[in-house]
């Protein structure tokens, strides 16, 4: 019996396959573009390696595309064929794939935690638990999971830097911004290609309203995310947001064109970067030209997917109010239909927060801001369940705020701004400061109108 790079026993029978497997695992931790090549080499050498088949299937499910479900199902079938020859730990990964295909990714998390109960130094299980929790919006769970296995990551553990990167992100998402910044920097010192840890620090700057420091942090560290899969577009997205907050519109648009939307894919993660950036620009009064057109065309073809409410809501950003009324109604109707069945955890999230959020986005696109505010405000308290990060979901928070402003509900909007500030440890970005000025101006205007004529 051989061991992998993290000291875990493996049923692989050849050194060449084990070397490729180690590279694949390190690639998962680093979000590396070459990960699929390494995984393919493992399966070519030893197609009966159930764990690699399970990782293939789980990776496909993380793409959030219904048309790829047959590929994940085929991976499960292949893994099941060699299930009896797999080690107990390896079987847990196969079971995790099976659970997600049954619509229960939370059970997949539980199985990864069972692996960590026995082998806390299993960095692959740590990363998968972290990643699935991120998709489900479980920030507290991300932090608890990482912190309980930290003692197993000695300084010579190959995954220690990446563990710290996960810890940094979990700290940031649970509001421990100072600790997150320190931990993220430590992660990058230990693992210079840890784009997740680097981006955790970028999140800290976003949440504390310090875009200038965020640009300093990212500038010159491009090599830390240049090797990544499409996650690299997300890091560029963060940089574009920082330019936007500083009023540097030309730079933000240039990054959109050259980096964020460099490859015009319909991957939901790439779509979410693009649509949320364009929406933020428009909320700030920036004309974005014809950039919505290619996004709307792609999103019109995703109306029936239903894999993730996070994806669906970003598809709606490219459809609602953009001469796509039929597709908008079709997508909103499908979300409501899924919500009624609630057969899977994805459909449960279509119900909450999906229905209200979708109704709100449709109304916003129609220019019915009072109705949009009613629905979006109702969805606010459950938006965490949509998954993603605070920074990613903030586009919906901004639309809620702007809908309320346009509807003239200043008191309710001010309360949301106060909540937003509290979540950000008392810091405010320029977006929030500008909205507070609008509230002040709006109230002054109302006061002036209500004054009796002399």
Molecular structure report:
- Helix 16 packs across helix 17 and helix 23 runs antiparallel to helix 24 (430-450).
- Residues 449-454 have low confidence and may be disordered.
- This protein has 24 helices and 2 strands.
- It is an all-alpha fold and 454 residues long.
- Strands 1-2 form a two-stranded antiparallel ribbon.
- Strand 1 and strand 2 form a beta hairpin.
Morphology: globular
Helix count, per DSSP?
Answer: 24
In which range does the helix fraction lie?
over 70%
Order of helices and strands: EEHHHHHHHHHHHHHHHHHHHHHHHH
Q: Say how many strands there are.
A: 2
Major β-sheet profile: 2 strands, antiparallel
- Strand percentage: under 5%
Secondary-structure content class: mainly alpha
Low-confidence stretches: 449-454
Query: Mean pLDDT, as a whole number?
Result: 96
End-to-end Cα distance: 94 Å
Specify Rg, calculated over alpha carbons. Answer: 23 Å
List the strand order in the largest sheet: 1-2
Key phrases:
454 residues; mainly alpha; two-stranded antiparallel ribbon; 24 helices; 71% helix; disordered C terminus
Q: Could you give the topology of this structure?
A:
Layout: E1 2-3, E2 9-10, H1 15-30, H2 35-45, H3 50-61, H4 69-81, H5 88-101, H6 105-118, H7 123-136, H8 139-149, H9 160-173, H10 177-190, H11 195-207, H12 211-218, H13 223-226, H14 231-245, H15 249-260, H16 268-283, H17 291-300, H18 309-317, H19 325-341, H20 345-365, H21 369-379, H22 390-407, H23 410-423, H24 430-450
Antiparallel strand pairs: 1-2
Quick summary:
With 454 residues, the protein is mainly alpha-helical. It has helices at 15-30, 35-45, 50-61, 69-81, 88-101, 105-118, 123-136, 139-149, 160-173, 177-190, 195-207, 211-218, 223-226, 231-245, 249-260, 268-283, 291-300, 309-317, 325-341, 345-365, 369-379, 390-407, 410-423, 430-450, and strands at 2-3, 9-10.
